[in-house]
Amino acid sequence: MKRWSLAALALLVCGCGGQDVDRLGRICSMTAGKFTDMAGGSHGKLANGWDAVCGAISETTPEARVAVRLRWDKALTNADIQVQPAGPGVIRLQGNVIDAAQQQRAGEVAESTQGVEQVVNELVIGKN
């Protein structure tokens, strides 16, 4: 049953047209609500990542793509990073990371994201 549901969802996402955006948004909202309940509430990392994914479906801005990639990068566990637009093709990273390696990795992920031409890395090391 679960495999069929996942396959149906995958077909819906891959085969939707412009008229299906509202329907897909409602499905994403319902699924996110159920997933949030299972993932430990609205403040869990899993729930926050799912919210970012749902937002990326409806928003294809560079900052949305960067936010999704940063949330799911294993090297950035426990990092508190906010992504903001700083101009056309320019992304600003703000927040706290554990060490210089996380700061560098966040910058690399952001720079390698489609639509990003420049990254302003204002991440603070060691403050949580």
Quick one: how many beta strands?
3
Order of helices and strands: HHHHEEHE
Count of discrete alpha- or pi-helical segments spanning 4 or more residues: 5
Q: Overall mean pLDDT score? A: 77
Largest sheet: 3 strands, mixed
Number of domains: 2
Q: What gap, in angstroms, lies between the N and C termini?
A: 42 Å
Q: Under CATH, the topology of the largest domain is which?
A: Histidine-containing Protein, Chain: A
Topology readout:
Blueprint: H1 2-14, H2 21-38, H3 45-58, H4 62-72, E1 80-87, E2 90-97, H5 100-111, E3 118-125
Parallel strand pairs: 2-3
Antiparallel strand pairs: 1-2
Helix pairs in contact: 2-3, 3-4
What features would you describe in this structure?
It is flat, with a radius of gyration of 16 Å. Helix 2 packs antiparallel against helix 3 and helix 3 packs antiparallel against helix 4. 20% of the residues are buried. It is of the alpha+beta class. The model has no long low-confidence stretch (mean pLDDT 77). It has five helices and three strands. It folds into two domains: 38 residues; 67 residues, 2-Layer Sandwich (Histidine-containing Protein, Chain: A).
